[in-house]
Amino acid sequence: LPQAFKRALPILEKIQAAGFEAYFVGGSVRDTILNLPIHDVDIATSAYPAEIKELFAKTVDTGIEHGTVMVIDHGIGYEITTFRTESTYQDFRRPDKVEFVRSLKEDLKRRDLTINALALRPDGEVIDLFDGLADLESKTIRAVGQARERFHEDALRMMRTVRFASQLDFEIEAQTLAAIKENAALLAKIALERINVEWVKLMLGKNPKAGLADFMATGLFAYCPQFKEHQAQLESLLTIENLHLDNEAEVWTLLAACFGYRPEQGGQLVHAWKGSNELKAQVTKALRTLEAMKAGDLSPKLQYLTGSEMLAVACRVARLLGLADYSSMAVLLAYEGLPIHSRAELAVNGKDLITLLNLKPGPILGQLLDQIEEAVLNRQVKNDKLALLEYGRSQLEE
Ligand code: ATP
Ligand code: MG
């Protein structure tokens, strides 16, 4: 057993000693068998939430209505979820009611994919009721039970399926794939935030082109914002030779650039997908840099405003799409060589200008600071207090 499981063993043993069943379940079991690193250890149990809370001193009600209690042990939180079935599905979304049961089998039956429906006993034995081990072995993604029904119950599972195809570099079994094709339109019922999470994981996966090919071929793309009208551009990504993406900003910058979007449109794309304002700003910056690269005019000011992280994103996207030939190394070295990297590094600040140049707070002061900053970046003047005050004075006289 990996260390993360060993650390959690006393918790399972305590639950068992109280007369209940307890297993490791979900992604951590799958990833362990695949020899992949695991992030969080999930535990499933026949004990009801109230029974778990009685057993442990430190618990947090993280999702008590779904049967999940977090047990804190040596500073680590473990999500312990009561075996449950999800009986009433409405609107092709996650059920609003769950029913607690005492049988592991019922719990595993409601899980999405066979590779995600494995349970691990504390003694190391794997419980494999749906041939998940064989599917792990043959690198197959298959729905538990009738794929059609399962996607009707919860349409997000279709996105999860294509996401895992990319993440694990597995192939989707034929009937599961056919069921997605048949039911792709149900994706429209799912909250965009949840689709977004799966889409980004797909793009950041080990084999994004495989996941993307399935996403396109099944028609799922047509139910995602701004994708339907860019089918050809999305498909063109499948011809990129070495498609590997590093972070979320890179995903959206690549998409916006491949759609031929201006920087503001890229920001709007992120916004339409419910991305954060920070992500929106990052993507807009990277796209501005890309435009400048295409024009062969990457000014020190723009490098400064973009920052090293988004400069790197712009370089990688430029290379992936063959838009411009800038080496990441050269661009980052140029960035490192800029005279300043933030306003704080400027040898004068607003206060200096107020006291030493007799200025008042206001737009003139702001403009002058901008001018001084740009002059320093362009190496027209040294970043030295006296030199900058002198320069400031001469600008005011003009
Ligand atoms: P990751 O490595 O991304 O965390 P995971 O398989 O652990 O992958 P989670 O979203 O953390 O995915 O879910 C944990 C488990 O819960 C899954 O392995 C699966 O058994 C079950 N599950 C999650 N989402 C669904 C769903 N929409 N329908 C059915 N079962 C699900
Ligand atoms: Mg997980």
TrEMBL record:
Residue ranges occupied by any Poly A polymerase head domain in the UniProt entry: 22-142
Catalytic activity of the protein: a tRNA precursor + 2 CTP + ATP = a tRNA with a 3' CCA end + 3 diphosphate; a tRNA with a 3' CCA end + 2 CTP + ATP = a tRNA with a 3' CCACCA end + 3 diphosphate
Binding site for Mg(2+): D40, D42
Cofactor(s) this protein cannot do without: Mg(2+)
Highest taxon above the source species: Bacteria
CDD domains referenced in this protein's UniProt entry, alphabetically: NT_ClassII-CCAase (cd05398)
Keywords: ATP-binding, Magnesium, Metal-binding, Nucleotide-binding, Nucleotidyltransferase, RNA repair, RNA-binding, Transferase, tRNA processing
EC number, as in UniProt: 2.7.7.72
Residue span(s) of domain tRNA nucleotidyltransferase/poly(A) polymerase RNA and SrmB- binding: 169-228
Binding site for CTP: G27, R30, R111, D154, R157, R160, R163
Record NCBIfam families: PRK13299.1
Additional note from the record: A single active site specifically recognizes both ATP and CTP and is responsible for their addition.
UniProt-recorded name of the protein: CCA-adding enzyme
Native source organism of the sequence: Ligilactobacillus agilis DSM 20509
